[in-house]
Amino acid sequence: MNKKDDKLRISILGSTGSIGTQALEVVDDLKGVKDIEVTGICGGSNIRLLEQQARKYRPRLAAVADEKKAGELKTLLADTATKVLAGEDGLIAVATEPSARMVLSSIVGFAGLVPTMHAIEQGKDIALANKETLVTAGSIFMDAIKEHGVRLLPVDSEHSAIFQSMQGGRRGEVKKILLTASGGPFFGMTEGELKNVKKADALKHPNWSMGAKITIDSATMMNKGLEVIEAKWLFGVGIDDVEVVVHRESIIHSMVEFCDKSIIAQLSLPSMKHPIQYAFTYPERMPSPDKEVDFGELGSMTFFRPDYENFRCLSLAKEAGLAGGTVPTVMNAANEVAVGMFLRGEIGFLDIADMVGRAMDEIKPIKEPTLEEIIETDREVREICQHF
Ligand code: NAD
Ligand code: MG
Q1: Average of per-residue pLDDT values in the chain
Q2: Which atom of ligand 1 is nearest to the CA of 213?
């Protein structure tokens, strides 16, 4: 490849999701400013959208996790040059497409782990939205990043903010990370009130429009727990060096406090297109069509301490992060199962934390797991949780 060629060739894992579709909007926004080619797209099952994306962005590869749907997409795209692939092998092929320089990891949940690991092994830079991968396999993931000398750029808004704020000092001068949380739709409620909340209420996030799983994680505050562990791996800090600060307006996306007690923060209106664009253009900044913060209109910003008692998922995640080994893997898998059950109306809101806590109590952890042991633990937890 020509060294001077700074075209961004990117494969998008989970191109049909909330992050994936916004990433393609960023590709459109950057037209004329940055040369970008979409080399691969993939998703779980939405073949109509994949067809539209393939026709517009002309990727070399398109993959669908669902094998039967892949056959249908193949027929739909028969008149194009895009090759259609199926199943996990298809996702891996998109993640390792030879011309891709960067892979946006935005499949939701554990399903994103194996394709992302393959991308790293093939020397692709990673723009990481999928926090579950780092939570479940942080040590192995970070070792692979180092071993293959690739860049890891955070897409989660808080971690992008921390990454940007870190540029205000040296690593050794960092005192702590202040991870902001909106508090979600149930901020201020007690367990007694949370007992009867419904799926429709949990899906109404005050500031962000996101996929269903992360929206429920935001309502239980598990999302913030996952993000504490994500920050630990991304920035090489201890779990106790990450302080969660509830900030209802989601304007400050996170902050870093340095040893002289100076705090550097990143602010912008809540839009995932900001962190996605920064991951795509880093180390440069490029113009964005997004609206800017109008402080006069905003008026005030509010801050609170998190409620670890009523939002037990946050405490459980911190506990898992401190324990290490496969404990975060168990916590993450149980949470994925529980959130799925809650979304299907099979369990109540507070049962999510119960299921996570029970799985963490009952499953014997492995201290320094291999990738295979992590995959096996994830499978085992999913099976056990079905019988709770
Ligand atoms: P989403 O549900 O909107 O999209 C998920 C994508 O993954 C879709 O393309 C779907 O087809 C695909 N997918 C799901 N299961 C799959 C499987 N088994 N195999 C292959 N593809 C599969 O989710 P989202 O909100 O875009 O979130 C994606 C990831 O980004 C999550 O890990 C989430 O925590 C993280 N994230 C999202 C946001 C946000 O604003 N949406 C913010 C920060 C981080
Ligand atoms: Mg976030």
Answers
A1: 97
A2: 2
CA–centroid distance, 253 to ligand 2, in Å, is: 8
CA–CA dist 274, 64 (Å, integer): 27
In this structure, are residues 377 and 366 in contact, taking their beta carbons and an 8 Å threshold? yes
Sheet holding 152-154, edge to edge: 83-86, 61-64, 36-43, 8-13, 102-105, 125-128, 152-154
DSSP class of 298: H
The edge-to-edge listing of strands for the beta sheet with 263-267 is 263-267, 252-258, 174-181, 242-247, 303-304
pLDDT at 388: 84
CB distance 97 to ligand 1 below 6 Å = no
| Separation between Cα atoms, residue 245 and residue 303, nearest integer Å | 7
pLDDT digits (tens, 9 = 90+) for 93-133: 999 999 999 999 999 999 999 999 999 999 999 999 999 99
Summarize pLDDT for 256-288 with one digit per residue, the tens. 999 999 999 999 999 999 999 999 999 999 999
Distance from residue 272's CA to the centre of ligand 2 (Å): 9
For residue 152, report the distance from its CA to the centre of ligand 2, in Å.
Answer: 16
Residues in binding site for Mn(2+): 156, 158, 227
Reported as a single tens digit per residue, the pLDDT across 156-180 is: 999 999 999 999 999 999 999 999 9
Residue 87 beta carbon below 6 angstroms from any ligand 1 atom? no
Alpha-carbon distance of 50 to 76, in angstroms, equals: 10
Query: Which residue in 242, 170, 217 sits closest to 334, CA to CA?
Result: 217
Torsion angles phi and psi, residue 227, rounded to 5: -70, -30
Nearest alpha-carbon partner for 324 in 366, 356, 362, 379: 366
Q: List, in sequence order, every residue forming a beta bridge with 245; answer none if it has no partner.
A: 180
Binding site listing? 16-19, 44, 46, 130-132, 156-158, 182, 205, 211, 218, 223-224, 227
